[in-house]
Please model this.
Amino acid sequence: MNKLFITLSIMMGVVVLSSNYLVQFPINYFGLNEILTYGAFSYPIAFLITDLANRSYGKLLARQIVYLGFLIGIIFTLLFSTDFADLISVRIAIGSGVAFITAQLLDIQIFDRLRKKEWFVAPLTSSLIGSTVDTFLFFSISFYATGVPWVTLSLGDLAVKILVAIIMLIPFRMLLKIIKPIKVQYKNL
Model:
């Protein structure tokens, strides 16, 4: 495995862990506590990582990075930020896992189908669709019937994810100039 593959996998795990922790905290400024958590700002970076991996390695190795990042993130989430005595904390861990793996694998498929279009079409489209699926899966699994205003939180969260997905096009484009596609031998996978 090369250094970039390992770096992207670890970064994915860090994003999952930090987002799972930060989603527990609403933003208590400007009346945003009913519509936004801090996790909305860190999670879209996962789509940047997935899209860079997909562009550099193709969809097969991008999936491996997602699986490895998922494993790292879930293990650390269960160890450090899940309170097993608190049902909402457990639901957050489950919701995070289901939403993450579903949205990231969807992102990879969409990106792969659009990869030959203009440079921004694949990352923007796959991130927007993936973020939408992730947001509604996560919030419904984690907070449905808990008294937490999950619908408004999910809409606020999605609005920020869309904004961040658009902003992430800047580092994506810059990193495309630095990270060169790697030819991968798929027979060894």
Remarks:
- Confidence is low (pLDDT under 50) at residues 185-189.
- The chain is about 75% helix and 0% strand.
- Helices lie at 3-22, 39-42, 44-57, 59-80, 87-114, 121-143, 150-167, 169-178.
